[in-house]
């Protein structure tokens, strides 16, 4: 499958953001700790959710998808303690089942998740946390296991405020004996969401959203229903779409508090942002060029790395030169090779990208290298003159609930086409 995109056309209208991918996947994994079936709502209908459902079913849990978009996970039948190797390789977030399996069964074994197009993705901090809680870690032949008859609370300091490590250690510590203090923890809103879910199961966790999280081990956990928070990266993608393409959009089901770093930067470029209680309005007069500005991506509440590609697409059409420092995943610039095919002027040197804005981009044939790079290429193609054929949209469908469909509701000329090679005539 490919996308056929024709520009330039401004975007106007109202768009509703779905549930957060990066909260939903972790809360689905954490439901393995529950004492019975959990009904999860606000779960986005994306490929990664189906993959996580496959991981949980492979372990012996049941996962039922309901017409209203909710899913019910019953972990009581879990009997396998090794997530599917194929699914771990397909989706790194599969390793978030490690903490819950270790806490509940005292054992987990998994394939080391590979790196991906945004760089190496080690799990050393996850393992350091499990080891501090008393687990014996074995790493051999590309596999890693953690084993512990009893987990005991510990003081843990993360070298890097890793989102995944924070979440895996939080779930592993829930049933440990005693208190765990996790320092230099990641502060993302999705971690607060997971703390809230775990506490609804009967856990005793405080401090998520700050750099110190305290987990008091409890003896058992029960079941709960839960609704995940909106996807702040999807919302950010639509805000940045207005920056790239021009027009005006009301982005509903958005928590402005989660968007402050992006909002500040968009305002620097000349985009007008109005913050509502559960929506954001972004405006940029059609064909008025933005001003260039610099960003450095950082862990939350800094500028989000997951919006860096989309923001670079906006800067490629701005007046002036921008410097982008990728402070989280230094190799996250692969998509810029495709942007330059459209006429963008981008030079990359390690974790620094320098963009010299051009007055126009032109449509061409492109390949999306990863999820957020793919989203950036869609936005660039919407602003470019002429037609773009974009391949690799399976990356985009992993993490966005029908991004092309939502953009076409805002007036974009974007359609899915069968990517099969056109048969030669005659
Ligand atoms: C989560 O990935 C998100 N994924 C990513 O979103 C997001 O970019 C990232 O957090 C940062 O916000 C999900 O939640 C499913 P990290 P995660 O551990 O947990 C290094 C998207 O587009 N590190 O915070 O894997 C790591 O290499 C995705 O939705 C170690 O060195 O990110 C990176 O440089 C992409 N050792 C930095 O920390 C470890 O043990 C931050 O990674 C773990 C991480």
Task: Explain how this protein is built.
The chain is an alpha+beta fold and 426 residues long. It folds into 2 domains: 2-18 and 230-417, UDP-n-acetylglucosamine1-carboxyvinyl-transferase, Chain (Alpha-beta prism); 21-227, Enolpyruvate transferase domain (UDP-n-acetylglucosamine1-carboxyvinyl-transferase, Chain). It is built from 14 helices and 23 strands. The protein has helices at residues 21-30, 47-59, 85-90, 98-105, 124-132, 163-173, 189-200, 232-245, 260-269, 308-315, 336-341, 371-383, 393-399, 403-409; strands spanning 2-7, 11-16, 38-41, 62-65, 71-74, 107-111, 136-140, 143-147, 155-157, 179-183, 204-206, 212-216, 225-227, 247-252, 272-275, 279-284, 295-297, 321-326, 345-349, 352-356, 365-367, 386-391, 413-417. It is elongated. The chain starts with a strand and ends in a 9-residue tail after the last strand. The site of ligand EPZ has 25 residues, from helix 1, helix 5, helix 6 and helix 12.
Overall 3D geometry?
A: elongated
Total domain units: 2
First-last Cα distance:
25 Å
Please, what is the CATH homologous superfamily of the largest domain? Enolpyruvate transferase domain
Task: Enumerate how many helices there are, as a single number.
Answer: 14
Indicate the percent of residues in helices: 25-40%
Name of the level-1 CATH class of the largest domain: Alpha Beta
Q: What's the arrangement of secondary structure elements?
A:
Layout: E1 2-7, E2 11-16, H1 21-30, E3 38-41, H2 47-59, E4 62-65, E5 71-74, H3 85-90, H4 98-105, E6 107-111, H5 124-132, E7 136-140, E8 143-147, E9 155-157, H6 163-173, E10 179-183, H7 189-200, E11 204-206, E12 212-216, E13 225-227, H8 232-245, E14 247-252, H9 260-269, E15 272-275, E16 279-284, E17 295-297, H10 308-315, E18 321-326, H11 336-341, E19 345-349, E20 352-356, E21 365-367, H12 371-383, E22 386-391, H13 393-399, H14 403-409, E23 413-417
Bound molecules: ligand EPZ.
């Amino acid at each position: 499958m490919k996308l056929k995109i024709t520009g330039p056309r401004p975007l106007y209208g109202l768009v509703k953001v779905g549930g957060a991918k990066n909260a939903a996947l972790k809360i689905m994994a954490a439901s393995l700790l529950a004492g019975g079936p959990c009904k999860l709502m606000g779960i986005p209908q994306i490929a990664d959710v189906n993959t996580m459902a496959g991981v949980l079913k492979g372990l012996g849990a049941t996962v039922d998808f309901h017409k209203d978009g909710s899913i019910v996970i019953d972990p009581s039948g879990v009997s396998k303690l090794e997530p599917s190797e194929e699914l771990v390789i397909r989706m790194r977030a599969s390793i978030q089942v490690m903490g819950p399996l270790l806490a509940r069964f005292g054992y987990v074994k998994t394939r080391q998740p590979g790196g991906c197009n945004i760089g190496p993705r080690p799990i050393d901090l996850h393992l350091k946390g499990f080891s501090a809680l008393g687990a014996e870690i074995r790493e051999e032949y590309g596999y890693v296991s953690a084993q512990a008859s009893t987990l005991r609370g510990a003081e843990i300091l993360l070298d890097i405020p890793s989102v995944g490590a924070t979440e895996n250690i939080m779930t592993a510590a829930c049933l440990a004996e005693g208190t765990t203090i996790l320092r230099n923890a990641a502060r993302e809103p999705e971690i607060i969401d997971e703390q809230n879910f775990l506490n609804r199961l009967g856990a005793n966790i405080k401090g998520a959203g700050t750099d110190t999280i305290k987990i008091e081990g409890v003896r058992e956990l029960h079941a709960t229903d839960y609704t995940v928070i909106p996807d702040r990266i999807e919302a950010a993608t639509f805000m940045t779409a207005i920056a790239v393409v021009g027009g005006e959009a009301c982005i509903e089901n958005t928590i402005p508090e989660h968007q402050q770093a992006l909002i500040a930067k968009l305002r620097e470029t000349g985009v007008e942002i109005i913050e509502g209680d559960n929506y954001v309005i972004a405006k940029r007069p059609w064909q008025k060029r933005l001003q260039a500005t610099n960003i450095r991506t950082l862990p939350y509440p800094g500028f989000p790395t997951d919006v860096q590609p989309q923001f670079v697409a906006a800067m490629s059409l701005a007046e002036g030169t921008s410097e982008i420092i990728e402070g989280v995943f230094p190799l996250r610039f692969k998509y810029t090779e495709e942007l330059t095919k459209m006429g963008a002027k981008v030079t990359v040197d390690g974790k620094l990208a320098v963009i010299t804005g051009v007055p126009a981009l032109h449509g061409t044939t492109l390949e999306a290298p990863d999820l957020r790079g793919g989203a950036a290429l869609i936005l660039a193609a919407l602003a470019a003159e002429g037609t773009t054929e974009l391949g690799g949209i399976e990356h985009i469908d992993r993490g966005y609930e029908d991004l092309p469909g939502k953009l076409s509701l805002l007036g974009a000329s974007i359609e899915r086409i069968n990517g099969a090679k056109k048969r030669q005539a005659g």
